[in-house]
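Q: What residues go here?
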């Protein structure tokens, strides 16, 4: 009986996973890809990870960069508030490069075209709500 109670308590503590019908997809249209080679890095971040340099996105993709406009589909997203970071990683080194240690040397952008000033923009400027089903955002690279 004790094992049964412990098993029930353990099962109750497990988080409920969203069913496929409750999940969302996000189409990210990125405008202004340089075409200088490298990769386009698109990351979907929650509130906790968004301001942290080098944090892992909750969802994302890395694709070979192609000049002009690119469309990236992210799937299997639990609905909620998120922000997107995009990097046109021209030298494919997996990180943002800077000149003089502080000026971005590669094109980048954020959801809502939020402006960065010495770091990522404020969460409230970049956040948007992902609802069940299909969602989309457009980001213009700087």
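A:
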């Amino acid at each position: 009986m004790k094992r049964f109670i412990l098993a029930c308590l353990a099962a109750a503590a497990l988080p409920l996973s969203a069913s496929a019908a409750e999940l969302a997809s996000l189409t990210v249209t990125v405008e202004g890809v340089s075409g200088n080679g490298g990769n386009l890095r698109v990351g979907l971040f929650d509130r906790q990870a968004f301001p942290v340099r080098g944090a892992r996105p909750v969802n994302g993709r890395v694709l070979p960069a192609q000049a002009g406009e690119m469309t990236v589909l992210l799937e299997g997203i639990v609905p909620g508030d998120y922000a997107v970071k995009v990097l046109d990683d021209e030298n494919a080194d997996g990180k943002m490069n800077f000149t003089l240690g502080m000026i971005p040397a590669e094109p980048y952008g954020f959801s809502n075209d939020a402006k960065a000033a010495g770091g990522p923009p404020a969460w409230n400027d970049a956040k948007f709500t992902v609802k069940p089903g299909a969602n989309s955002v457009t980001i213009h690279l700087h």
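A: Context that may help when evaluating the design: Residues 1-16 have pLDDT under 50 and may be disordered. The domain at 18-140 is CATH 2.60.40.10 (Immunoglobulin-like).
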